[in-house]
Amino acid sequence: MNQSILVYRGFRYLKVAIALSLIASLFYVFHQPMQRPNGGTWLGYGLGSIGAGLIVWLMWFGIRKRRYGGGRAMVEEWLSAHVYLGLSLIVVATLHSGFKFGWNVHTLAYVLMMTVIGSGIFGVYAYVRYPTLMTENQRGATLEMMMGQMSDLDRECRAAAMGLGDDIARLVLAASQETCIGGSVWRQLRGTDPSCPTHSALVGVHTRAAAAPGDHAVALRRLVTLLQRKDDLVGRARRDVQIKALLDIWLYIHVPLSFALLAALIAHIVAVFFYW
Amino acid sequence: MAERFRVAVVGSGPAGLSAAAQAAERGISHVLIERTDHLSDTIYKYQKGKFVMGHPEVLPLRSPLSFGAGQRETVLDTWSQGIAKLKTNVRHNAEMTGIAGAKGAFRIALKSGETVEAEHVVLSIGLQGNIRTLGVPGQERPWVQYQLDDPKEYDGETIVVVGAGDAGIENAIGLSDQNSVIIINLGDEFVRSKPANNAAILKAIADGRIECFYKTSVARVEDDGIVVKTPDGEAHVKCDRVIARLGADPPRKLVEACGVTFPSQDRAALPELSPSYESNVPGLYIIGALAGYPLIKQAMNQGYEVIETILGNPVEPADEPLLRKKFEGLGPDVTVDQIIQTIQANVPVLSGLTTLQLREFMLDSKVHFPTKGTVIFQRNDFTSSFYSIVEGAVAVQFDPADPSKQVVLGTGQFVGEMSLISGRRRTATVVAHERSVLIETPRRSMIKLVNSVASVRRALDEAAMARQIQTHLSPSSTTADLAEVVASAKIAKYSRGDVLFREGDKGDGVHLIRSGSVMVSRQIGGRDIVLSYVAAGNYIGEMSPMTEALRSATVRAAVATETVVLESSAFMGLLSRSPELRKRVETQFQDRLMSNVRMENRPESGNIIQFLIEQGVGEATDVLLIDESLCVRCDNCEKACAETHGGTSRLNREAGPTYATVHVPTSCRHCEHPHCMADCPPDAIHRSPNGEVFIADNCIGCGNCQRNCPYGVIQMAGETAPKPGLLSWLLFGSGPGPGQDKRPKAGKKAEGRKVAVKCDMCKDIAGGPACVRSCPTGAAIRVKPEEFLVIASRKG
After folding, report:
1. What pLDDT, on the 0 to 100 scale, is given for residue B266?
2. Which residues touch B633 (CB under 8 Å, ≥6 apart)?
């Protein structure tokens, strides 16, 4: 049966993550090092090793995900563990640092790690919130189907606009040729277009309708109906693109920064052992 | 004076060509009569470059013409050259309209009015039938055509498409992109077409892209167009081209007119033939697809054999060595003929077969020689083959808890018919009771047999009914206890959507579902609320006889369904004799009452069941469902499928309908009675013991399964080039990487060779279906029909 990654197997990995964090915290509280707590004590080295191990294991998820058909555990189980153990890294790595920060490669690694975790938290939020919104917005139509319906509506609009004058023909033509769905990252994420040619055509036709000659009334009513339909469709398509972009965008931060983190982590370890 | 030949061969497909070539080789007077101006019309009409396969590989080729797997053009060229080299006498553009006379003096009438006389006739006209023509004056004009290879060939023309079937609609829509198209419909609706085509043509007409003349027929063809008869009188339509798609006349009528009889009215029935392919008309031989041999190599062998037979030379059939090998276990002294005779004598269900049918049947079957205690099949296996007991006996262990409870079946009996009928798992374990000889026949051969030999069907139905009642209703009752129920039982058949009984009807019996499944609903507040879904192997309708009240709900067939109807009084009699059964039925009754109340209060759950049933999930054994409230649209399921299956994903995540957040993607459902299996020439589609329906390597790429699948889950795909390893992608950027570029370019070698591919539920991959295992959020699950109620009540 379907089970979200958050509740996977009765919160198994949440429990593991909490246990790990509690044990690390207890050690930290009862540990009395010679100087103030830092990564150089036995506990510091211990927590550092656990943290580094966790980072490498968390990044291994990218490999496991691409090993289609391989591995014993389901990818869902991996992701559930990835999320909770990734969060426990906040505690483990912070305690490892002993709250000592500065302008150096060590803190850089820490900041990168927290950014990766932060983007991951957004990812979890997106995965929980957006799928249902996307289904509701789609109402059974895929983006491709919506595009098809739009081009059908465009054809009907052009047919309906015949004989209604150049002014209206220009608006309708712009609506059918210049309306764009998606585009740059920013446009995708924004989900609306304030200067949408379809919307302008709808408003334009609507305002001109009052002044139009009486024998155009029937055709204009039909045109307004068609444009309103397309305007709704365009809105839904943009929303679809927006949700898809939100579901994907965080990965463009999460993944490259985790590689940067890996590099910084290696620099941190090398620096500790050679230059301390 | 008509020409007279020793042999006339009608039809130049592989069988006819081979026969004519053999006649030429042997130097006897012959003629090959072909309707068209080219040879082998069926293969000629394959699309350009199509790969023709050479199955079955085990069978040796016996023909003066050579044949090997290859492209359509190569195969046709080889044959044409062979025919020319042997100086075969071919008569083109000669359409046979009937055969009269008898052996030694047959008269073959041709459409041109001429007659060909021959001592023997070899009929090899295949199953494609004659394409119906317009049948109006002027139809011989070259721009009146009956086929359309590529709609893109025509540009800027005015084209009239005649015919409102699927072919006509598809042609009209295909042509309408570049041409001005008019479609002529004899009726006032497009009723003969698939729903998708119907919707598409109505939309094209509404949009003004295609013009339609309803209730119109073609009166004549003129120089610049056609004259049509409309309800308002005749009208002249100017056009550049007429494409008539009026279907084809099946050849059966024509063959019957030649005096040949068929064993049954079944559409799939084939004429009865002797071991040397002679029909009931002496001297008239039938070979090739019309004789039930759709594969090229078989057909070509028959062409050779039939000519040798006519010459009076005894031919050992090509299958003789194969059969001899099959029967090896019986000792060296027994001949194939003797064994065939023994089978005919010992096994009543097979005794109605002709020797030829039995030989072919045996070629498809396996012979087993189990010793005492050998397991034939296990309970819950998903196999569906049929076992006939030629010698010895087997024991059926019907109680999983106690293997000592068994029924012994002896020589001449059969087992395995229940899974054959229901398409579901085995209901009992069967072991050999002593050293035996068993024939195992695959589902397909058995179904072919049941459809063409009425006696087999009857014998199977009667025996199966008693066993089904015992297995599904009352395993502990003795045969004597059940006698009354069995005697009054009938088999009832329902099409999808048919009503078994209606709420408020008088109860007339209990239905035991032996194949298919049903949906139970009740009128609540003026709406039909679905209460449950009941699959094969269960009974329904017991409430009314038990309470002596009217039917409390309506039951409809969710898919094509067969039930065994038990008479109410006989059913109640059985209950009164068996307190244990009564207790079980009563418990089930109460469970159903409880479940009904739950469902009545949650109509949304019923809606989900109804939605799933409407998607055809009712005939599924395992279906992929996606919970869209969890699906992040990453398409990892598709990527995993493609990566584990040669680069082509067998599922389309996005396509397919959604209700609430339950999405049914386009993916194989592994139907109980797979539509794809219905017409597979090399018999390449099988069901594995775990239930997966898969296509084996001997697929010839004919595309029948793709067309037969109502759910569009089969694709034709070529082989794809291998991808670089994961690490070389990750470290050195060599591509395409995992999950990228679903179909890298096919290697040169693989070009043109396409085979059917579909979901095999990852039967060869440890751990199970890759789509489900690679879903990062747990949105994709595979569900069996029994679990629908659980899904529905969780989601509703």
Report:
1. 66
2. A131, A134, A244, A247, B653, B654
